[in-house]
Amino acid sequence: FRRVLFRSRRCRINVTMPLLALYFDGHSDMRVDFRLTRESFNALMAVLGTDCDHGWGPEISCLVFIFWLASATSYRVVARAFDMPRATVHRLVHRMSGQIAALLYTVVRHPTGEELPRLGARFARLAGSAAFSRVVGAIDGCHIRVKPPAEDAACYFNRKLFHSIQLQAICDDKCKFIDVCVGYPGSVHDARVLKNSPIFYEQSYPPPGYCILGDGGYPCLSQPICLMTPFRQPVRNHLQARYNCCLSKARCVVERSFGILKTRWRSIFLKALEVDVRFVPEVIVCCTVLHNICLTNGDLLEPDADVGRAAEDQPAPEPAPAPPGNVSGAENRERIAIQCYVPDHDYI
């Protein structure tokens, strides 16, 4: 009897802890401490499921992980915030990160065939030209700061002069991610990350007849995937200048996606992530999954001014030529530029 009583007291949830009281009262705003709304958290739990036969239960485990993610603090601080052992916090963080990362291909997915025409029409409105009606995504890379690892630290030192791991992402016009590739060290060029990503060697996206937009750090391609990039500066004529302007207006949505991601999880993305470098890709994947869940539920955090300035101040990557054995997209780019330059008038 004493053993059963001891176990029941030991496993009882202390709802008087401020963070748990915030959740269990059922109405308080969770965004201050957890960086997402209650509706977004409930949507996450609906995807994860609430079945549990042991431990703290999925809600408590998820709250611990999201608080750790939102504050990017030590396991010791999280343990004091939730009044539980530090070893338990470590176990919950790693368990929940694996479960949320497993949702990647459910939450971050490519558009269906029925969605592609509507997506192209929305990108054309962003660009201000019907010539971009076959655009179904914008691609870019983002460097996430990490602590210099004990081994091969030079591989993680990027052109911006800090150690990082790369996140390559394709987003739609609403800033939701539709494809991500995480894990390459910071010294790897954006074009090489693209070449070694599944969308390139599996030719999984975009589908034939459609294209995605990238900056000057990527090669202009028509095969194996169709990727349109701007003309190199200085441009030669007004045709190239207008094309670059329209492309920039459509492509900047991916910069806004990264800005929203960094604003929500600013403790993760605006300072060096102090975890083992092998654990960093899983944490980043969790952030992208939560990003899409939040946007689906209308939970939007606009990029802060300092985050936007940081993105603008970053040096532009060096232009990359088309990899050997691939077909350049220069002709397609010229055709789109001509269509973009011709005014949309009805001469009948």
What is the fold's blueprint, element by element?
Layout: H1 2-10, H2 18-24, H3 31-34, H4 38-48, H5 58-71, H6 75-82, H7 86-101, H8 104-107, H9 115-127, E1 135-145, E2 164-171, E3 177-185, H10 190-195, H11 198-201, E4 211-213, E5 221-223, E6 227-228, H12 238-264, H13 266-269, H14 280-296, H15 305-313, E7 327-328, H16 330-341
Parallel strand pairs: 1-4, 4-6
Antiparallel strand pairs: 1-2, 2-3, 5-7
Describe the protein's architecture and organization:
- The chain has helices at 2-10, 18-24, 31-34, 38-48, 58-71, 75-82, 86-101, 104-107, 115-127, 190-195, 198-201, 238-264, 266-269, 280-296, 305-313, 330-341, and strands at residues 135-145, 164-171, 177-185, 211-213, 221-223, 227-228, 327-328.
- The chain has 348 residues and is of the alpha/beta class.
- The strands form two sheets. The chain has a five-stranded mixed β-sheet with strand order 3-2-1-4-6. The chain has a two-stranded antiparallel sheet with strand order 5-7.
- A hairpin with a 5-residue loop joins strand 2 and strand 3 (177-185).
- Helix 7 (86-101) packs across helix 14.
- It is elongated and about 70 Å long.
- It starts with a helix and ends in a 7-residue tail after the last helix.
